[in-house]
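Quick note —
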Amino acid sequence: MHNKDLKVKIGLEIHVPLKTEQKLFCDCPTNYYEVDQPNVNTCPVCTGMPGAKPFPMNDNALESALMISKLLNCETKTTHIFVKRKHYNYPDLPSGYQRTSEPIGVNGKLSEVGIWEVHLEEDPGRYDLSTGKVDYNRSGVPLVEIVTAPDMKSPEDVRNFMRELMNLLRYTERIIDVGGIIRVDVNISLEGGARVEIKNINSVRGAYKAIKYEIIRQKNLRKRGGIVRQETRGFNEKSMITTPLRIKETAEDYRYIPDPDIPPIVFEKSFIERIKLPETPQNRRERISKKYKIPEKYSKILVRDKAIADLFEEIADKIDPDLTANWICREVLRQLNYRGIELKESKLNSKILIELLNLVKGDRITEAIGKKLLERVIDTGESPQKIVKTEGLGRVHAVDELSDVIDKVIEENETAVQDYGSGKKEALNFLMGKVMEKMQGRADTNIVIELLRKRLD
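Predicted structure written out below.
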């Protein structure tokens, strides 16, 4: 079998911090991503001081993990869910072990990817390899870990799955959604080779790049007659390569034992039933298609990103929904994709976009000017109305002014005028483009076409 035909199997372990007021086993706050000073959101429990005992498990974290498990179509485990100590020695883990629950949900599925289990664990601290310093503000924050089956076969599969999963998790409003918060461990093997784990990848893009590199590395190694060993590797976000960390790491290496300070979890039926599932992207697609009567192609695009769907609904109640959906799905997403950013990383909000769309809808600016304005305000957060007023970008309807420009365009483009006279109708679009160019996109296109035809016919 040729190297290029080798089947790839990829599974993921995805760790996502849950949005709760307190940590998993103590009352310390969880807003470590907003705190500049190290080691202030700490206490004897989350810093592993001798003799410190964990508080009862955070109910809100349990609710969130159970909600996520149900959204992923998992079977709920209801009794004897032990919290175990997972032992390893690393500076970010002051107690020498990490508390992690047994599965809360098992045998789930999202799209075509199996979900092996969903469980809770506490986050370690943050160890800076370059300085050797540790910040324990994050230590003890509740994480939900989602373990998939090795059902993905390419970096593209992984990227699509992670985007769908993160969008679904955002709909719960139960996760900390800040850039670089998600952490992914990738398990990857090529047919006939050992499983390699890549640790602590911090983004969807990072996972895509790490897998792409690792597939090439393993294929090249085997082409040279080498053997792929079972090992744990790290991923360098800057150089986009994986590097060896440890050889053959298994569950036995962690010496799991039930934590004697925490009784097993038992879910009462009433606790499970009181957890109401949020609106899913699928539910929302059906609802906004029906409510706003927009084409399904738009509703499908909108619900892929909760923030984009939220933006649409904030605006669609105030402006024509079709216009809103068209601009968001075509122009807004095009600008965001070009920059490689999400909506929250831009300066665009519903107020700015309402202003802009009102200018377009009211014929105060041309669509071309509207697109240029969007390109600008998405980065600056300026008021479109103020820009139009101060820079004189309003739509030009004046026949006299447009006639003068059309005369110049006809004079400067004799070949196009002759082409139009000989029946080449596309020459009219060329001439109109030249007029719009001279008018910097401000001319009323309907009037321009009418005047051109009168002059040329």
